[in-house]
Structure formats: structure tokens, C-alpha cells
Amino acid sequence: MTSALHLVSGIAILALVSVDFILATIGAAPRVILSDRIARTVFAILAHATKHRPAKVLARMSGVIVMVVVAAFWIAGTALGWTLVVLSDPSAVVLTQSAEQAGFWDALAHVGHLLSTLGGAITRPSGTFWNAVEVLAGVNGMVVLTLAVSFILATVQSVQAGRAFAALLHSLPPGADVTGLFDRLADVVASLNSAPFALYYSHGRAERRLPEALVVMARAAAAQGPKTEARFYALISDLPQLDLPDENADRFAVLQDWAAQRRLGALQA
């Protein structure tokens, strides 16, 4: 009964983590199952901790903290899932020298070596079947580590693109035409759909914060007429976790609230 429970639990954890991982890294899905909730929770804790104080230093670290926690969830979840699968058969992994059955920590270390492709563990599979199963674990680990690194790099690129856009917007003179930045805005929104965690990278300088820059641009677009305003909201309609209503006045309020949820504490300009 315990072995069957280990197997079912392990497969369920692997399936859950794998689906979430695929949706986040290559699915261009801004509303993933668990990692998005984890990221929002971590950022909300950081925001609450700095609610009434400046957070310039933490602002430079917020995105890194969120990404480390999310990556740890993917890696730890994968490792736990495979460990439970291995433990479903008490004789699946044995110690290399003594041939004794591996306990939980030995099985976890064995899986860690498989996922990281390190080799050199003091354990080994007990037979051909588990040797074949461990090939899947090794491939799984290679895919997770490779895609995780690629996803983090894409996220950092999205962060830089958003900060560059915010800097360009703030460099415009008062009353300048903002439609010239609409092409850049479309690229930034598309990039954020592929790497939504980039929104949790704050900045110590106000003119580098993308969410607040979008609020500034919304005001400028509204001042330039209804057509420009309508184009602006059409371009940002695909932003992660942004559900725009039909009326422009209501849209601006929703955008302000969306930006406020991504503001870390009482940041100073």
C-alpha cells in the first residue's frame, strides 16, 4: 500500500510540476498553474514587508528573489516526484558497496545526481528496469535545467526591454506624441507574455519602472485624443493579469490598480 502511494504521489507531483513548467517556459502562458501564484505570493510578502518604507535596495533584488523561489519550486518538485517514484520499490536503488537498500536520503541524493547528471553517487539501480527508468529521470533533469536557464535569460531580457521603454517614455518632453513608441510597446507586451515574471523586477528609480510608466503613457495617450487612447489600450490588452473593461475611463482605473499591485513598498524616485 505504501509503495503504491509513493508511486501515485510521485507521478502526480511530476505531472503537476511538469505541466506548470512547460506552460511557463515554452507555453507563453502568463497565467500558469502554480508558479505564477508562488511568484505573486512572494512579491506580495516583499511588498507587505516594505509597505510603509522606501525599498530601493530590495527593489533591485525583488525579481531575483521571485525567480529563485520559482526555480527552486520546479527543481525541488521534480526531485521529490522522482524520489517518491524510486521509493515505490524498496529495492530500486541500492548502495554501491554494500548492496543494501537505499533509504529516503540516499534515494533523494541518487535522484539529485540523476537530475543534475553529476554522476558519482554512492548508489546504483538494482536492475535493468530501474536502470531504464532512470534514463527518463536524467532526460527530465536535463530538460528542466536547460529550459529553466533559458527562461531566466529570456526574463532578464524582458526586464531590460521594459526598463529601456520606460526610460524612453520619460525622456520625451511634456506633451510629446507618444505614438512613436507604440511599436516598442507592442514588443514589450509580447515579451512579457512569454516571460511574465519580468514584472516582478522592480527598480530603485521611478523612471525605470515599467508598470508606472504605462500609467504615465495612458495619461499621455488620453490627452492626445480618443483614437490614440484606444490604440494604447488595444496594445496593452494582452499584459499578464490585466483584464481591461470596455470603457476607457474604467480601463485607466484598472491599469492604475494593476500597476499598484506591482509596486514594491513606498519606493522613492
From TrEMBL:
The chain crosses the membrane at residues 6-29, 61-85, 135-156. The keyword Transmembrane helix applies. This is Ion channel. Keywords: Membrane, Transmembrane, Transmembrane helix.
